[in-house]
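# step 3/5: fold
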Amino acid sequence: MSKIKKTVEDYFKEKNKFVLFAFFVIWSLTFIAFINTIIIGDWVKIGLSFAALMFYLIPSFVSYRFKLRLPATLEITFYLFVFASLVLGEVFAFYGPFPFWDIILHLLSGFVIAGIGLSIVEIINKGEKSRLFTLLFAFCFSMTLGTMWECLEFTFDMTARTDAQKDAHVRQISTITLQRDGGNRPVRLNNIEKTDIYLQNGEVITIDEGFLDIGIMDTMKDILVNMVGATLFCIMGASYLKNSKKDTIVKKFIPIKN
């Protein structure tokens, strides 16, 4: 037991002090939000706040368990990302008044996860794989995790009746469902002014800004923005690998083996 305690103590002694400061500040703010959600009694937000508190522990666990050195920039970016997405975005509903919030987060996640993907190849293969393979893996790794996240959002929306995949107002659609002759030619509806939704109890809800899309556009936008972030990293990563891994901005997002 004392050996484990000594190892943990050594681990924290080696940690960047600014990273520890950022961790405790963000963790404390999230804990306050967690207590607030308990007082309010919103079980969905309680779960999101608690999940954020647990996610903050991931970098330390990964670094300690797999003996990796995580750049300070990467760790702080991770903490800020979790706080901005789960706490500010979901608990405090920043996604509504700030439409760019979701775009920035998915762009950043696409970039950072591609960096993690590149490091996986470098650590496992010790730089023996070609630059093309390394960059391709980094890109696919980022896109895979980004897509899995969208699947997770869809699962929560379908089971817990949340709205992680935000709705969008659409003024035009193309659909073969309205094709009366049974053909495959889409019917195009333009300049949709409003949509009436009739509930079983007789209540009518009117959508005044066209047709209410239930998450498809949000999902595809997130995946495309993730792709832009991953592509941006790969472009910068190509220069990083070509120039013998010199100290560039890319290096600040790549974990390395101790």
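# step 4/5: annotate
Strands lie at 68-69, 168-170, 173-175, 187-189, 195-198, 204-207, 211-213, 256-257.
# step 5/5: archive (pending)
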